[in-house]
């Protein structure tokens, strides 16, 4: 037996074990909420903020892609459009980080973006298309027309809009209160002098540089019956032949009234004079005869015409119409007797004709004698038999 003991032998080998990664870790953001402030006037494509997440996995399981999950309804980020603080002053974006594993895992963070204001909005009046105001012309000084207001969507001084006392033109008739925006008159207005006013109101914000807007206020004055009819001229002179038929035209009087409508409608009437022989048309002022006139009865007439408007205001002055009746040959000479035999003393008239001029010339005739002498006829003869 004497055999030798067995000898133990060994060998060494290196065993490399590769642990294959499985996607068992989600991405992790460094913060759950990120915040950033940017101006609303930043150009397209501007950098906003960087976000980062880590993933303990490896390979594709740690290869992260980021996307905006929600909050970008306005489409501003990606960044595809300009920003507008007046549309949204703050935007909350939900950002996701997604790995590229076979069964990808997600992680989420919020990016709160505050939009800083710039003065990019002009003041806006409540009626940008303009204001229409009506006002009675006899309204007293200080009458309120309307209250103007303007708004501005910007913040702070950029959105502060004092209307300003010097922001209305013309300023001779109107005043604008800088605090309340009340527009009022500073003097009594006269429609007959100026019926319409077109005002420009300026609103300027306090931004730098300031922005302004202009609104137009159209003021129309309503008429009141504050004017009496006025004759021009005041005196009228007319001539008419005697024996003209009734309705013969004499003359036309005229009065004006600058008021509107019935307030400026003039009616005429005879206030004094012979209304049995003359009449005046109420609307036109035409004076006509009512009967035929006889110069031998009366040689001249005088009428007083008054004008009254539709508001019952009468003319302060009346029109004076002087009418002279012209003679016609309508009266033959008339002897008081058919035959005369007498002694004529000097300066004694034999026959009279009331007509004028050649119409009043008396012709004396018999078979042997014809005498034509203007009346009155006076003889310086001892005797005359006709």
Describe the 3D structure.
By secondary structure, the chain is mostly beta strands. It folds into four domains: 28-116, Sandwich (Immunoglobulin-like); 124-222, Sandwich (Immunoglobulin-like), CATH 2.60.40.60; 230-326, Immunoglobulin-like; 341-385, no CATH class. It has one helix at residues 76-80, and strands spanning 28-29, 33-39, 53-54, 64-70, 90-99, 106-116, 124-125, 131-136, 144-147, 150-151, 168-169, 174-176, 182-185, 196-204, 212-222, 230-231, 235-241, 249-252, 255-256, 266-272, 278-280, 286-289, 300-309, 319-326, 341-343, 361-365, 370-374, 383-385. A four-stranded mixed β-sheet has the order 2-6-5-4, with no helix packed on it. The N and C termini lie far apart (229 Å). Residues 379-386 have low confidence and may be disordered.
Compose a concise summary of this entry.
This protein has 386 residues and is mainly beta. It has one helix at 76-80; strands spanning 28-29, 33-39, 53-54, 64-70, 90-99, 106-116, 124-125, 131-136, 144-147, 150-151, 168-169, 174-176, 182-185, 196-204, 212-222, 230-231, 235-241, 249-252, 255-256, 266-272, 278-280, 286-289, 300-309, 319-326, 341-343, 361-365, 370-374, 383-385. The protein is rod-shaped.
């Amino acid at each position: 037996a004497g055999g030798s003991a067995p000898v133990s032998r060994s060998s060494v080998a290196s065993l490399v074990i590769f642990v294959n990664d499985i996607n068992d870790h989600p991405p992790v953001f460094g913060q759950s909420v990120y915040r950033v402030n940017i101006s609303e006037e930043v150009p397209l494509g501007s950098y906003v903020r960087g976000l980062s997440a880590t993933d303990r996995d490896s390979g594709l399981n740690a290869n992260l892609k980021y996307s905006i999950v929600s909050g970008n309804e306005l489409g501003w980020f990606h960044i595809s459009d300009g920003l507008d603080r007046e549309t949204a002053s703050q935007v909350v974006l939900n950002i996701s980080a997604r790995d590229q594993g076979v069964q990808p895992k997600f992680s989420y963070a919020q990016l709160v973006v505050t939009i800083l204001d710039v003065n990019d909005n002009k003041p806006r009046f409540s009626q940008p298309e303009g204001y229409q105001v009506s006002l009675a012309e006899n309204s007293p000084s200080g009458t309120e027309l309307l209250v103007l207001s303007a708004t501005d969507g910007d913040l702070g001084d950029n959105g502060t809009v004092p209307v300003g006392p010097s922001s209305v033109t013309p300023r001779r008739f109107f005043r604008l209160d800088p605090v309340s925006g009340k527009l009022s008159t500073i003097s009594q207005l006269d429609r007959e002098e100026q019926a319409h006013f077109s005002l420009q109101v300026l609103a300027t914000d306090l931004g730098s540089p300031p922005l302004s807007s202009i609104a137009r206020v159209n003021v129309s004055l309503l008429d009141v019956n504050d004017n009496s009819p006025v004759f021009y001229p005041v005196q009228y002179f007319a001539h008419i032949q005697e024996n003209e038929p009734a309705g013969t035209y004499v003359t036309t009087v005229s009065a004006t009234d600058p008021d509107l409508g019935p307030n400026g409608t003039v009616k005429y009437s005879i206030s004094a004079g012979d209304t049995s022989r003359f009449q005046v048309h109420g609307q036109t002022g035409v004076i006509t005869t009512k009967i035929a006139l006889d110069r031998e009865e009366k040689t001249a007439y005088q009428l007083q015409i008054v004008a009254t408007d539709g508001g019952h205001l009468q003319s302060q002055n009346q029109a004076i119409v002087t009418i002279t009746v012209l003679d016609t040959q309508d009266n033959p000479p008339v002897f008081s007797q058919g035959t005369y035999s007498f002694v004529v003393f000097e300066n004694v008239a034999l026959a009279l004709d009331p007509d004028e001029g050649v119409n009043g010339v008396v012709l004396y005739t018999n078979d042997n004698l014809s005498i034509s002498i203007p009346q009155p006829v006076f003889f310086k003869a001892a005797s005359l038999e006709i």
